């Protein structure tokens, strides 16, 4: 029996009884409209323009997707925390390294993912330059926010679609003595509940893949960023298309569609698609990297933990959404192995003027 991979929570988690390619093709109308959104100075006007460009069917589909995402994480977050701890994201490992099944290896790898992301984005460490206000977009149960609050002494605000996650994140912040530094609420990444230019670090760790409107997602990240702020997006992408390709192959589309249905994802996009969106917003110092090799041990480790007695019984106590998610984990591994799925980091800075 595989060793249970468990990062121990600070306080016992509650028991839950349950109780891509937008290769921009599916969103062309939104891409074409983006200059209008950029030129609009007032947030209300930008949102009104964006809303007017969406058909009622698209708005309904987005609401259904958001509802599914919230319910998925309401159901699955307790199991994840019990087995993997407070960080709901991949770990960062050396490529081709031999990784044991010990919980310390994987907890350390998840912390390293945060540190490597900060290093890649060149977030300053000096006291006078370090981030003072951080937004965590798609915060899960707040692991990254609390880590950043401790590291920088910053005020961190996290948003999630899941009421269960927001409540748990605040409980953990209080238990860790961070109630006056880390704050969590239910909020929509496509319509963030914050003023323009509010944060000097905008953090999105593995939430971008859930966003049904990538232009609006990126526009909101830029909107809440203060002049000179750093924006960090770590997300799942599909491979970049070749010069002669207009779309992914049928097999690739079908493969991603199966994953989408289990994890409540819209169509995927590529890293280069993100770069084009950032360029359209005049963001600076855009950098990307493919960290797929660095996260390769993650999904096999999650599968091993699910196959332990505790992992198996925990899954049975949740619900079908979580079980469906567990059943498609081999498809994630296959997607990585066939270079279809990419684990990407994309960073940039907002201009000072």
TrEMBL record:
Membrane-spanning residues: none
KW Ribosomal protein (keyword) present: no
SUPFAM superfamilies, sorted: S-adenosyl-L-methionine-dependent methyltransferases
Residue ranges, annotated region (SAM motif II): 197-205
Swiss-Prot/TrEMBL GO biological process terms: methylation
Keywords on record: Methyltransferase, S-adenosyl-L-methionine, Transferase
Region ranges (SAM motif III): 224-233
InterPro entries registered for this protein in UniProt: Methyltransf_11, PiNMT-like, SAM-dependent_MTases_sf
Residue ranges annotated for the Methyltransferase type domain, each copy included: 135-233
SAM motif I as annotated region, ranges: 134-143
CDD domains, sorted: AdoMet_MTases
UniProt keyword S-adenosyl-L-methionine, yes or no: yes
GO molecular function, one term: S-adenosylmethionine-dependent methyltransferase activity
Family: Belongs to the class I-like SAM-binding methyltransferase superfamily. gTMT family.
Name this polypeptide is given: Methyltransferase type 11 domain-containing protein
């Amino acid at each position: 029996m595989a060793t249970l991979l468990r990062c121990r929570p600070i306080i016992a988690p509650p028991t839950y009884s349950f109780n891509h390619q937008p290769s921009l093709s599916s969103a062309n109308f939104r891409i074409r409209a983006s200059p209008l959104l950029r030129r609009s100075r007032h947030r209300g006007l930008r949102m009104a323009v964006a809303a007017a460009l969406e058909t009622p069917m698209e708005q309904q589909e987005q609401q259904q997707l958001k509802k599914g995402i919230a319910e998925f994480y309401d159901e699955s977050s307790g199991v994840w925390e019990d087995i993997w701890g407070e960080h709901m994201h991949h770990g960062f490992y050396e490529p081709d390294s031999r990784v044991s099944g010990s919980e310390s290896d994987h907890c350390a790898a998840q912390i390293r993912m945060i540190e490597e992301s900060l290093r890649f984005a060149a977030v300053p460490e000096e006291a006078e330059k370090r981030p003072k206000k951080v937004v965590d977009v798609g915060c899960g149960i707040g692991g990254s926010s609390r880590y950043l609050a401790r590291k920088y002494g910053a005020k961190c605000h996290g948003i999630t679609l899941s009421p269960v996650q927001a409540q748990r994140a605040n409980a953990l912040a209080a238990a860790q003595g961070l109630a006056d530094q880390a704050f969590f609420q239910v909020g929509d990444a496509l319509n963030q509940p914050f003023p323009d230019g509010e944060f000097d670090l905008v953090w999105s760790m593995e939430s971008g893949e859930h966003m049904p409107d990538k232009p609006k997602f990126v526009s909101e990240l830029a909107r809440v960023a203060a002049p000179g702020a750093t924006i960090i997006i770590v997300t799942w992408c599909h491979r970049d298309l070749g010069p002669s390709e207009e779309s992914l192959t049928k097999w690739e589309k079908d493969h991603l569609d199966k994953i989408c249905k289990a994890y409540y994802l819209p169509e995927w996009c590529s890293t280069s698609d993100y770069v084009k969106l950032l360029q359209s917003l005049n963001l600076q110092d855009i950098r990307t990297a493919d960290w797929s090799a660095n996260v390769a041990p993650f999904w096999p480790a999650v599968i091993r933990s699910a196959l332990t007695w505790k992992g198996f019984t925990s899954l049975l106590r949740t619900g079908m959404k979580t079980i469906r998610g567990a059943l498609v984990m081999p498809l994630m591994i296959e997607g990585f192995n066939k270079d279809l799925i990419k684990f990407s980091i994309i960073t940039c800075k907002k201009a000072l003027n």
